[in-house]
Specification:
This protein is of the alpha/beta class. The protein folds into three domains: 2-56, no CATH class; 95-181, PDZ domain (Pdz3 Domain, Roll), CATH 2.30.42; 187-357, 2-enoyl-CoA Hydratase, Chain A, domain 1, CATH 3.90.226.10. 35% of the residues lie in helices and 22% in strands. The chain is built from twelve helices and 20 strands. The strands form five sheets. Strands 19-16-15-12-11-10-20 form a seven-stranded mixed beta sheet, sandwiched between helices. Strands 1, 13, 14, 17 and 18 form a five-stranded antiparallel beta sheet that branches. A four-stranded antiparallel beta sheet has the order 6-5-7-8. A hairpin with a 3-residue loop joins strand 10 (187-192) and strand 11. The radius of gyration is 28 Å and the shape is globular.
Length: 434
Amino acid sequence: MKKILSLFILVSLSLTGCYAKEEPKNKQEDAQTRFESLSKLTQVISTVEKYYVDEIKLQEIVNKALKGLMQELDAHSTYMDKKYFKEMQIQTAGEFGGLGITVGMRDGALTVISPIDETPAFHAGVESGDIILKIDQKSTLNMTLDEAVGLMRGKPKTKIELTVVRKSETKPLKIEIIRDIIKIQSVYAKTIGDDILYLRVTSFDKKVVDGLTKAIKENKKFKGIILDLRNNPGGLLTQAIGVVDLFVDKGVIVSQKGREEEKEEKFNANYSNTLSKVPVVTLVNGGSASASEIVAGALQDHKRSVVVGQKTFGKGSVQVVLPITSDKSEGIKLTIAKYYLPSGRTIQATGVTPDIEAFPGKAVAQEESEFQIKEADLKKHLKGELEKVDGKSKKEAKREPKKDKKIITKEDLVKDNQLKIGTDILKSLIIINK
């Protein structure tokens, strides 16, 4: 063991360059500090291996040390051993059973960023902001993000129980969910009245820009657009840039900065006159994260959209997966940069604050009543009331007309306060635009 540790220190020292004879004093001091730090690490590893109450192998000690290191960096960096590295490849390459939620770590707690529309979690009632305390009977305290995702994933048609804490509830809720193959439709298009096009983006997969472009071409009469990014957990950066590019003619859409500021990468809009003058309202909430925050924030900075809803999640960092073994069976997911909006502000941990704050739930509306009548109708109405008492008038049962799934009605707007407020603002913008 001592020989291995000595060799480890020797190799590390050679990498620091502390044996160079003509190094400046500050570099020599840095090398000395690195030497002391590496010595401390090897000393702890050696002590744990020798004296820990249970016998533990060196490989296991190193793996635990790596997990702890990555976990302490930030909520998104993680060490992936062979098992989790393989799980990630399965998730990327093929079909798998899941719940249909996007989760993240917020202040050390496993938090639901958003449930994905029309998935098992969505239908079971999981909500954005729910804190997951248990997955089946396993506590999520001190559990890494990848471990939690691995537990929630499983064979389709198998049962799982989540114990969650919700702000609006006085005690934890137990939610039973049946896993299924997750199939996501990323773009939905509907109309509101004669002149508003409603575009809902559930996640930023590779088909989003094409889906929005198709919907816009098929609905040519609109005078304004509602872009709904609520509960959108994000996805591909290229698609987020493409969506902003539909509405913005020129300028920076988003920039990416790492440790070295001179290596800043900027993504600019390409000139396009397609929708640059069309009024837009963007809907967001606490479940809007990552790519959806880039879109909402960029449109806000370019004065191309009024953002309505609630403050977004605040996930504005960039991760890459780097293999750390020669056979590429293990790796680390490491945060290497942060996203910045056109104005230079960051999304990370701050999110996007809407221009107009609006809360979810039903909109305030006047309740319908048969007695809401005008004076001109009074005599006729009272006659009808007498007929009801005398039994001369019978109410005929009427079938509800079949609802068009591509049309949002006034009744739908009343049920969704944020959408109602966004629609009213957009109607004002359309009038001003004339």
